[in-house]
Amino acid sequence: MEDNKEFYKNEQEREKNAENRLIRQDLADERRKNSRKNGKKSKRGGYIAAIVSLSAVVIALGTLLGFSLLTPLDEYISSSVTEQQSFYELVGYVDGMDTNLSKLVVSKDDEKRQKLLGEVRVQSSLASDSVTRLALRDEHKYYTVKFINQVSDYSRYLSEKLIDGETFSSSDIETLKTIKEINSTLKKNLSELAINLNVGYDFKGLLEGDDGDEIISKFKDLELMATEYPHMIYDGAFSDGVDGKTAKFLEGKSEVSKMQAEETFKKYFSSYGVKKVELIGESKGKVIETYNFEAVDGNGVEIYAQISKKGGLLVEFNYFKDCSEDKIDQAAAREIAENFLKKVGYDNLKAVWTTGGGNVITINFASLVNGVICYPDLIKVNVCRERGVVSGLEASSYIYNHHPREVETASISLAVAKKKVDGEISVETSRLAIIPIGQSAEKLAYEFYGKAEDGYYYIYVCAQTGKELDIFKVVETTEGVLLT
Amino acid sequence: MKRKWKIYLMLFVSLAVVGVSTAVAVSVANEPAMEVAIVGASSSKSDIKLIQQKLKNWGYYTGSVDGIYGSKTKAAVKYFQRRNGLTVDGIVGNKTLKAMGISSSMLSGGSSSTNSKFSSSDVKLLARLIYAEARGEPYQGQVAVGAVVLNRVKSSSFPNTISGVIYQPYAFTCVNDGQINLSPNQTAINAANDAMNGWDPTYGCLYYYNPKVATSKWIYSRKTVVTIGQHVFAL
What we know:
The structure holds two protein chains of two kinds.
Chain A (H helix, E strand, L loop, with lengths): L4 H34 L4 H28 L2 H34 L3 H24 L4 H26 L6 H28 L6 H4 L6 H11 L33 H11 L6 E10 L4 E8 L5 E7 L5 E5 L11 H14 L5 E7 L4 E10 L2 E13 L4 E6 L1 H6 L12 H9 L3 E12 L3 E12 L2 E8 L5 E10 L2 E4 L1
Parallel strand pairs in A: 7-9
Antiparallel strand pairs in A: 1-2, 2-3, 3-4, 4-8, 5-6, 6-7, 7-8, 9-10, 10-11, 11-12, 12-13
Helix pairs in contact in A: 1-2, 3-4, 3-6, 4-5, 5-8, 6-8
Chain B lengths: L1 H27 L16 H13 L13 H13 L10 H6 L21 H14 L4 H16 L7 H5 L6 H4 L9 H11 L10 E3 L7 H4 L3 E5 L2 E4 L1
Helix pairs in contact in B: 5-6, 5-9, 6-9
């Protein structure tokens, strides 16, 4: 992180050093010449020395020339041009957003609304891209970027609502009006800035992080507008409601002491031959708080683990060593993972997915309720195939989402759901699963796995409505398989 | 005398050219591109030996590693397929090879380029950032730096892609000083993979800094979650 002023300074220093080197070379040449004049050394030796020294100078010169062709002047000019482009694009996109948001507030037709939302979404994504490319510090654009990204995410949310056959609620329209007002102010400020810049403004000021720079001071002012920004709660990744996430599995669990957590650590890793167990700190996350332990095994390899203050659960751990062999196969690795999970108190889990074909494999486990896979409750386990041990675990998704569930009964049969996907893939396996929907909801779905023309897919069909909820493509890579 | 100057001039020009091209080559040198796996036939003796060795290591095969695909080898392949949830046919096809962790580049008929350890360009870029920013840190500190990048991607106040976050102005010093272009080691690659798989010892942090060198006052105003190695991680 930190500064890029440093960079230019270093660059100048580097040049200076190179110059000094050259001067030193010249002096050396001079000295040699003088000694040749005075002394009567063999002429041949003199030439060799001259050629060698000259070539050294020439290589140094050439290298210097080569570098100066690429850095820093050209780079400087090209980044200044990039800055200009990003700035004027931002002004343009915010302007476009303004027009479409105005139309959205006026329009009563859902089809027209959907088209307008599509426009707003594209323009705000591009605006976000432009503003984040500007050489502004985080603190000078934090809320401006947040606003633009939220407009993009909120238009996606509204658009999906319309696709699902719903229409705007009165609060949606109110939110749109507020967004429109804020965006108008943003547009006004940016357009004014752009017009004023036309006379003799140099983007160098922005690049150098000059405090008096017009763009920087305008963005600083815009950050103060943040107090007027609405608190937006809707179902989307950038909803302000995401901050209110809780850890369902920790609810009702009591706090453990440092001593108890240390005992838990020693118990869980007894088979690793741990020594020098040390409490090295705490994590104070918004939702999960942990005690952090460090220890070494018999070979001095470090184990780092985080144990939750509430409930004393193993949330995460790493026991990394570069594994260069695969002494056990995947089936054996899965058994090792399953046994470890039981030992650390996570049960009723089923391996659902494996990634990494190399010497460390990651196995994803999901909880199982009455034979139904619950994908929100995921625990990931790394197994090192050289040592045949669990070398890492990550259970935060499980801790956020796991709670006693009543699995509802499906309204439509497997056969009916299968007809939905029969044209898309030739189904090889199917089962019931609970899948996450948006940020907080869950739905019961039929999972179908099968082959289409260009590969394997997972398709999820709602067990109540028969609607296709999600689709994943299986991407096979040299490292194993991925879901996209 | 004139001729000598000509020689010097030629020497100068040619060496200057060498110098320039060296500089250009150094600055544009890239790591090898990702390869696409092409699985070839596994009928050569060395390929069969490779499979036998693997099966023997894992306890499926008790015969000798002789490169002959006999009934014992076939039985071992079937046993392996059964335990690994594959179609039990005794034929070492694409899927069985994959389950054995054998990639085409390891086979004699396969492509000879290096076996890429990356599953996507994003993991590769993230591994480079981790290596450049935190290679001296403990493993969990490297995972944490990767997690901060991914938390930024998820945050509304930052770019929405990994490359956008990494190349954002002022975000990471290593982008300016060129260290981002160093080739990452296996530790950084594993840390990048873990971060991509959801490991986040910082619980959603968006910033990190080294308190010994950080100069920004603003950064100190962020709520600290955890200190790992030299870095303080903050929301």
